[in-house]
Amino acid sequence: MLNYKQLNYFWQVARAGSIARASEQLDLTPQTLSGQIGLLEASLEATLFKRVGRGLELTETGRLALSYADEIFEIGAEMEQALSGGTVKQVTTFRVGIADVMPKSIVYSLLAPAMTLSEPIKIICREDKLDKLLGDLAIHRLDLVLSDRPMPEQLDIKGDNHKLGECGISFFATPALAVKYQEGFPASLNQAPLLVPSLDTAMRRRLMRWFDAERIRPQIVGEFDDSALMKAFGQAGIGIFMAPSVIASEITRQYGVVELGKTEEVQDYYYAISVERRFDHPAVAAIRDTAKQGLFTN
């Protein structure tokens, strides 16, 4: 039978990120925690952590165990509140993985419908690289992954790619830069200072193919994993940056920049990736339907 005290120690260590940090929080010695987790691994006949340098990292089995532990202790907290005379309102947890290249305003627009359902939803967002998120999706630590590209076919994961929509991209600059580079767009981008997504993004590859076709050679002055950081540099006048055309008015208003022009030749795509679960999550359909009927209608 599962020892829930040992499971709790495992849960605390996984959440804290290290045995040393968890031992301080629990006021226990690291040796005690290590011993209890060792007993749990022996009873489960599985390895939950692996050493990476001087730290610990969850194994694939450990990530699966953590997803169950999250649910177990969340339900336990609700039971404790109910039995002590409190009122408990049942809330469905919705765990979403967000590929780190996704524009935050697009993510918000996609997820907002999930918060307006008649059934209460608690949303948990995790941002990371797509391959890491798909690993968590496969072991049901996530209900959905939002990405700029579909799940690779070579992955051994039984999942579904739901295409939410697509749109062209717009280029933005401060008013001072716009004076120099707006006229004659897109040829005006030749030798212009440009801020671009990192090399491993689908958008970067599409963008460079378009530049080659148009014989445009911009001066790349910055590469970014984080689109919000790229916009901050653009707002400071370091260079011209790009964003999905569907949020162009929001970008100009929020960052005080000018839209130089846009192209439909470079498309930004958005996908919701899910796998078969023990139940159909009500938020997934809401996101898919609202994206197709609202955000990407045009």
Brief summary:
With 298 residues, the chain is of the alpha/beta class.
What are the key terms here?
six-stranded mixed beta sheet; single chain; 298 residues; 10 strands; Arc Repressor Mutant, subunit A; 2 domains; DNA-binding transcription factor activity; LysR_HTH_N; two-stranded antiparallel sheet; activator; alpha/beta; D-Maltodextrin-Binding Protein, domain 2
Q: What do you see in this structure?
A:
The protein is an alpha/beta fold. It has two domains: 4-83, Winged helix-like DNA-binding domain superfamily/Winged helix DNA-binding domain (Arc Repressor Mutant, subunit A); 96-298, 3-Layer(aba) Sandwich (D-Maltodextrin-Binding Protein, domain 2), CATH 3.40.190.290. It is built from eleven helices and ten strands. The strands form three sheets. A six-stranded mixed β-sheet has the order 4-3-5-10-6-9, with helices on both faces. The relative contact order is 0.14. The mean pLDDT is 86.
